[in-house]
Design brief:
2 copies of one chain form a homodimer. By secondary structure, the first copy, chain A, is an alpha/beta fold. The first copy, chain A, is built from 12 helices and 18 strands. Chain A folds into 2 domains: 205 residues, Quinone Oxidoreductase, Chain A, domain 1; 137 residues, NAD(P)-binding Rossmann-like Domain (Rossmann fold, 3-Layer(aba) Sandwich), CATH 3.40.50.
């Protein structure tokens, strides 16, 4: 089969790799019908994080179950399934606590499955899913083509935006600022709106993303950043800042901006993968009682809650995909996102 | 009148200073009947933070109102009052949001009141209170001598322990670890218990404090610290750690221990004043979804809730005082706390 392999900085290739084989009894083989490129895939692509040798890449996919191990009980051949960006058993204590990203037995796509076998990357034709019953969520019926982009966002960005909003404690009436207008930031706007935020500010300087932000529920746009951006936010919210700030980038600059945009006693919900050693200014946090909560989003725990709304169209996170390419053109998909020609690219094998 | 002045490292003196005078119309003069020494007072005492010149010190006191300004409406001469460790108006947006430590018009004892006058330190015979109606809480009647230590803890340590517990999200059934067995840590145990924690571990290596911790509601004691302490906590809680960790010290070591004692998805509520530039390990926080929330405790916002329980004896935070000295011996009070001969010293002018 064909799958995406990263060889180094700006070196993405679609290569012939071994077709996955069931090996543990609790696994499944999924034929990928849609995958995508994540903002976090751009870190190795850009060389911000090192690529020591060629390896599979991609962690967001949906598809159809082709084979299941003999101990798989809930997932069935023919199911259309959503995979979160990691695998997990959903039976260990961390999964039951709602933190399936810390599954005691789970792992990450494109690496060892902790049971001696390989779990394929998501940007390929097939993926072996180590804990099929825990990891995969089957849709009630086979989705329409129009539903697939929305379902694919449940793999990562919609659940991650939701995690930012939950981590920041968004409740009915909250004032919210979203830092970052990538796919996660845009989904965080959807999440904040459905949790009842009274006002949602999108910090964005791209006209097309601003338009989508407004469509998703943003009530205000702030284009400026840094000191000027913080001053604009502070002024909008009684001179003190917003109740909840959703940090969806992961740089030192974005984290600083987020913390300074929160009012005393406010909360920053962060989901941007911290790169370049972002530091938290503890003295400022202490003096202002601003909390910092979040992390790698346990999106598997959120799929059941969000799925009906995606299927009904009540929320439309699939709109974050503004480019669709065949898997053959995966290198172009990375380039388009890297050069900001696309917010998020959907790949079809 | 006489008041405490710090001159430098281990140089605490009781000196004759000007008697305070009403000056703003919204202030009051309180005759202090009990004051105390705070763990945070030990930072300048020990020279950890510099003392640039002699200045008043002390920020916890209760007493009797002797004079009020002509615009003071709720506080009356003769009232027995509790003062939080700062002054605040309780009408600005931050106070109304529950974060009176960020009062837009408030300030700190022993410094300028932001209206051109001086607010006395708390370790003295009298204090001018800048925002009398906002800052002071009058008890329903004059307390008994036995009630006074408990009321004095509402100035700081009991409210601060409560803030740690609230910031960590303690709710019925939570598992809780308290890092720090000083007065704040001990009060945090009371707070965790009254919020319904199912299990409360006190990290303490002093027999007398362990005994008080158990009396206050600790179900377990862990004496070890660092890696060994974290391992003990992890083992106690299903191999993953506790739901809520209350950090009541403020050093890098205590913060690290707190963060590593929290389970994935858990929360650290911190109230220890960060000294020596404690850093937060953002990558670990991100990977484990452990949040960090808290800061300088807005104890004024908690007095009304906690006061009835102190008066009734339902909670007995006054037991943290294990030494009582006349104000004359304030230097000995500092020394006793510095040398750990006392947990907390009550001073009577």
């Amino acid at each position: 089969m064909r799958a995406t392999v990263i060889h180094g900085e700006r070196d993405i290739r679609l290569e012939e790799v071994p077709h996955p084989q069931l090996s543990t009894g609790i696994d499944a083989i999924v034929r990928v019908t849609a995958a995508c490129v994540c903002g976090s895939d751009l870190w190795p692509y850009r060389g911000v994080t090192a690529t020591d040798g060629p390896h599979r890449i991609g962690h967001e996919f949906v598809g159809v179950v082709e084979e299941v191990g003999d101990q798989v009980s809930t997932i069935k051949v023919g199911d259309f399934v959503i995979a979160p960006f990691y695998d997990c058993d959903m039976t260990c204590i961390n999964c039951l606590n709602g933190v399936s990203t810390s599954c005691l037995h789970g792992g990450w796509w494109g690496s060892d499955d902790r049971a001696g076998s390989f779990a394929d990357g998501g940007q390929g034709e097939y993926v072996r899913v180590p804990h099929a019953d825990g990891t995969l969520v089957a849709t009630p019926q086979y989705p329409t083509p129009q539903q697939i982009p929305g379902l694919l966002t449940l793999s990562d960005v919609m659940g991650t935006g939701h995690h930012a909003a939950l981590s920041a404690g968004v409740t009915p009436g909250s004032t919210v600022v979203v830092v970052g207008d990538g796919a996660v930031g845009l989904c965080a706007i959807i999440a904040a709106k459905r949790l009842g935020a009274s006002r949602i500010v999108a910090m964005s300087r791209h006209a097309d993303r601003q338009a989508l932000a407004r469509e998703f529920g943003a009530t205000d746009i702030v284009e400026s950043r840094g000191d000027e951006g913080v001053a604009a936010i502070t002024e909008m919210f009684d001179g003190i800042g917003a109740d909840c700030v959703l940090e969806c980038v992961g740089t030192q600059e974005s984290m600083d901006q987020a913390i300074r945009s929160a009012r005393p006693g406010g909360m920053v919900g962060y989901v941007g993968v911290p790169n370049g050693g972002a530091e938290l200014p503890i003295r400022r946090l202490f003096n202002t009682n601003v909390g910092v909560n979040g992390g790698v989003a346990p999106v598997r725990n959120y799929i059941e809650e969000l799925l009906p709304e995606v299927l009904s169209g009540a929320i439309q996170p699939g709109k974050v995909f503004d480019l669709q390419l065949p898997l053959d053109e995966v290198a172009e998909a990375y380039a388009a996102m890297d050069e900001r020609r696309a917010t998020k690219v959907l790949l079809t094998p």
